[in-house]
Amino acid sequence: MGATACGTSTTGRTPDGGEAQPAKGAATAAPPSPAASKGGGTGVKAAGSVGGAGTPCLLPVTFDLAKDWKPKAVTHAEDDQFASLFKQGGTTLACEIDAKPAGNLGFLRVWIADAPAAPGDARTVLEAFMAGEKTTGAPTYTELRAGTGGAALPAVEAAYEAAPLDEAKKERAFAVVTPGGAAVVVHLGGVDSGEHEAMLPAYRLAQQSLGPSE
Known about the structure:
Elements: E1 3-5, E2 8-10, H1 34-37, E3 46-50, E4 61-66, E5 70-73, E6 87-88, E7 91-98, E8 106-113, H2 122-130, E9 140-146, E10 153-162, E11 169-177, E12 183-190, H3 193-209, E13 211-212
Antiparallel strand pairs: 1-2, 3-4, 4-13, 5-7, 6-7, 7-8, 8-12, 9-10, 10-11, 11-12
């Protein structure tokens, strides 16, 4: 998907990849992944954060950024003829974090649900988002925790292969609902599966450090 937001050009959403559990039916209850439930394990160190006051993107959540990943808020007018490009499955694109300065081709994108959700609705939010994705098969959903310690929030992750015009590419996204009811989808994209794998540590860093900013 390509989009242009207030002079900000956004490339087509692509790769993220995944391992996880089987695909259909209810999410398989899996133990939290080390990267999502504990400090460390991502292979990268935090170099700033996004989501809070004073950062480029004001979001319902905050999380750490890998070195040289550059966040930028995505805005658009409601009557913009391209507004639909910023909407997917009941969410609106709010922030994209460019990996190019760090040497990779892809984005970490944050989508915010248009309506409040209950804490147990992360799967519903993610499934609605995934309905807008073109995949080669059914996504694999995994339950996990986003954040660390007692503040970690229930989350659901989808691992899948996107089906663009040429070669299928790995993609990955997770959804979480904050205690205040704001639902967020964090999606990792890249130009191919190789870029996905290279950027996965930065995605995991965001996942394990995530917390509500409300």
